[in-house]
Each structure stands twice: as C-alpha cells, then as structure tokens.
Amino acid sequence: MCIRDRGVDREKYKAGGIAQVDLDRLELQRVQFESDLQVALVNLRTAKIQLLTLLDDRTPVEDVYKRQTLLGYSTTDLRRKKESSRGT
C-alpha cells in the first residue's frame, strides 16, 4: 500500500527536479509510512481481541464489524449514545 508512486519521485530526480538526498528522504518516509500502517493494523486487531475478551464474546475477530450489534445495541444506537454522552 503506497500513497504515491515511487516512479514519480524517481522521474523528478532523473529530470533534475530534486536532489539525491531528497529522493532518499522521500523513500525513507514512504517506508516509515508503510511500517506505521502495518503497526496500526496490528494494534487495531489486538484492541479488537482485547475488547472481545473483556466482553467474554466468542465472535471471531474478523466478524466483529459484520455483526452490526454489540451487547444487544445496534451500531446506530451506540453512535447515538456516544453523541448524547458528549452533549452534541
């Protein structure tokens, strides 16, 4: 998963639009972004597992968002409760 095509940056470098150090910095930022994304996905899965464990729910992690209910509330009801608790 990459936001920007690496080829664009390389073409700019070849055309003299950016220096080698800038190209290296862009590639490093891309790798860091991809690493951060993978870490975030792992953290999300871990949080889902922890929540299901706390709720003593045996739903497979992959099915959590397919189910549309949590503790008998629909996702719409949960959103309403969240908004009303914030006073919005």
- Average pLDDT confidence is 81
Distance between the termini: 36 Å
Query: What is the number of beta strands?
Result: 2
- If strands are numbered along the chain, what order do they take across the biggest sheet? 1-2
Following the backbone from N to C, one meets helices and strands in this order, namely HHHEEH
Question: What is the share of helical residues?
Answer: 55-70%
Counting structural domains, the number is: 2
- Cα Rg: 21 Å
Class by alpha and beta content: mainly alpha
Total helical segments: 4
- Point out poorly predicted stretches: none
Kindly estimate the percentage of residues that lie in beta strands according to DSSP: under 5%
Shape: elongated
Profile the largest sheet. Answer: 2 strands, antiparallel
Summarize the structure.
The protein has four helices and two strands, in the order H-H-H-E-E-H. The protein is mainly alpha-helical and 88 residues long. Helix 1 (6-14) packs antiparallel against helix 2.
Give a verbal description of the structure:
The structure is a single chain. With 88 residues, the chain is mainly α. The protein contains four helices and two strands, in the order H-H-H-E-E-H. It folds into two domains: 57 residues; 29 residues, no CATH class. Helices cover 68% and strands 5% of the residues. Strands 1-2 form a two-stranded antiparallel ribbon. Strand 1 and strand 2 form a beta hairpin. It starts with 5 loop residues before the first helix and ends with a helix. The relative contact order is 0.07.
